[in-house]
Amino acid sequence: MGTIYTIANQKGGVGKTTTVASLGAAFAEQGRHVLLVDLDPQAGLTISYGFNPDMLEKTVYHVLLEEEGITTVTIPTNLPGVDLLPANLDLAGAEAELIGEIGWDRTLAEALTDVIDAYDYILLDCPPTLGVLTTNGLVAAHVVIVPLQCEYLTLRAFKQLQKIIVKVQRKANPHLQTRILRTMYDSRTLHAREIFAEIAHAGGEQVLHTFIKRTIKFADATAGGEPILQYAKDSEAARAYRELAQEIEN
Ligand SMILES: Nc1ncnc2c1ncn2[C@@H]1O[C@H](COP(=O)(O)OP(=O)(O)OP(=O)(O)O)[C@@H](O)[C@H]1O
Ligand SMILES: [Mg+2]
Asked: What is the pLDDT of residue 29?
């Protein structure tokens, strides 16, 4: 049975999509079979793997509305071992349509049961909100990875997210574990070094040893429609995500 990781933080631009795209590529490099799920109507993950969301007829939206089975919507990517359940703007409608349904928060979890044995890892890319889609991600996951930028107010956003995580644990998914990933770390500034240490202190054992430094390489890779592990194979950034994959596997 595969392990489901959901990458969540309601704060925008903290590295969620980059982490899903890069970690997926890192697992695949190790010979694992990976499913990436785009849960963001903005479809950043879908785009980062080189697909045009507007050209896709069937997406995760149709899976959530139970109009399509998950295997018919999943597409292979250019990376061997990496499949994608894509998204486009249709997904924006799912929030309103799901909320009236019984068991709306388990919709994704149920859909994933059909494919969980076919993959080693399933990675969910949440949107920057605390709504229906992120909740579905938290209910479906074994582990939530929270990327935290090493910047002011980062812990404040995390505390808000933690309240939702606790609620999900209490009501729907008692075994959900939390891991914190420090991202966009710039060791040259005192401020970043202070926040880096503050996160380590506040997060304790939840904090992953691996952290991701700030580098322009990620923006370049996104523009190139490739994950960093392909775009800049030997870069420090690519190495950091390989290290993360290893840390998570252990
Ligand atoms: N370690 C990093 N250093 C520098 N830039 C980064 C880093 N990680 C990601 N980025 C860039 O920062 C931007 C935001 O990253 P990303 O899209 O992964 O964040 P996100 O949390 O998914 O955003 P959103 O909340 O909008 O979905 C992108 O342009 C990405 O290329
Ligand atoms: Mg994103």
From this structure: 96
Atom number of ligand 1 nearest to Cα 18: 18
Tell me whether strands 121-125 and 3-7 are parallel, antiparallel or unpaired.
parallel
Which residue ranges have their beta carbon within 6 Å of ligand 1? Answer: 12-18, 40, 44, 128, 183-184, 212, 214-215, 218-219, 222
DSSP 127-140: -SSSSHHHHHHHHH
Atom of ligand 1 minimally distant from the CA of 14: 21
| Contact between 42 and 30 (Cβ < 8 Å) | no
Mark out the alpha helices in 8-89 (DSSP H runs): 16-29, 44-48, 60-64, 70-73
Rounded distance from Cα 8 to ligand 2 centre (Å): 9
| CA of 14, nearest ligand number | 1
Which residue ranges in the chain fall short of pLDDT 70?
none
pLDDT for the residue numbered 222: 79
pTM recorded for the entire structure: 0.97
pLDDT of 234: 93
